[in-house]
Amino acid sequence: xxxxxxxxxxxxxxxxxxxxxxxxxxxxxxxxxxxxxxxxxxxxxxxxxxxxxxxxxxxxxxxxxxxxxxxxxxxxxxxxxxxxxxxxxxxxxxxxxxxxxxxxxxxxxxxxxxxxxxxxxxxxxxxxxxxxxxxxxxxxxxxxxxxxxxxxxxxxxxxxxxxxxxxxxxxxxxxxxxxxxxxxxxxxxxxxxxxxxxxxxxxxxxxxxxxxxxxxxxxxxxxxxxxxxxxxxxxxxxxxxxxxxxxxxxxxxxxxxxxxxxxxxxxxxxxxxxxxxxxxxxxxxxxxxxxxxxxxxxxxxxxxxxxxxxxxxxxxxxxxxxxxxxxxxxxxxxxxxxxxxxxxxxxxxxxxxxxxxxxxxxxxx
Length: 365
What we know:
Elements: H1 2-10, H2 14-19, H3 31-40, H4 44-87, E1 95-99, H5 100-106, H6 112-117, E2 122-124, H7 127-136, E3 138-143, H8 157-173, E4 180-183, H9 185-188, H10 194-202, H11 204-210, E5 213-217, E6 221-222, E7 229-230, H12 232-237, H13 239-252, E8 257-261, E9 264-267, H14 275-279, H15 291-294, H16 296-309, H17 314-325, H18 327-330, H19 333-336, H20 339-345, H21 351-357
Parallel strand pairs: 3-4, 3-5, 5-8
Antiparallel strand pairs: 1-2, 1-4, 6-7, 8-9
């Protein structure tokens, strides 16, 4: 590197050679000849030392700058990872539950704004408030794929399935209907205010992780706009549905996770072939592929939670091992760069997660 720098300084280029007159042929010699001349000329050694020192100084400066730039980038990545871990215990937008009794009265899936105007939403503004609420009441997260481009359930197929699934839960676990609260994207996420909608969507991982029960609605039906079949297979290919499943598995393993298909409510643990799909969020189908970039930090936070809690639950150990086995495809480098490796070397502080878990004063049955 140094010899190249000296050579480039001492060797004239073509334009310089052309400009030098024939009366000064000594400067058309190569750098070796010029260097020999410097040593033969009084003060030439000093000049060479100055040139070498200048080149070395520039190289050292560039090296120091590169090291500082790397340190700055690493610090930024660590800060991003910590923020992602903290976001798992933060509510970006109000968590909105609808009482099951009110849901039955609606007769169909209604949008957030209508449910709010009817006074049929319980709105919780902080993670602490959410934890206290779900510790005292039975809560159900409904995961489903939309059956139309503009509305999720044009023919009421998923509404009927949600009512049946909730009724089965109440019967199977002795839950009073007036003590069951539902989270469904259409009425729990703002539909008209796009800024609030974005905040809510970014918190889906939090929403699905805090509820006690998680039901995947997968009745066989037809998409209104595409006329294509929709069932458990198409549901499982949806990227957002995979994210919701992963968030729920990280929070509590497979306990209280169910699949509702063909009129039957079955435990998700009876579908082990789906676990691998669930963790491959970025391989799932998205209406807008750009949504994948917005999920990187959510996945980082979920992975931090899974890594921090893997020793507390056998199923989390199994999930952690499965993710590690498929690490390259779960965390594609095109989206994550080296963020996972950085997290391995410097795990985030999960004290907020441990503090939030202490708020669960009443355990789920």
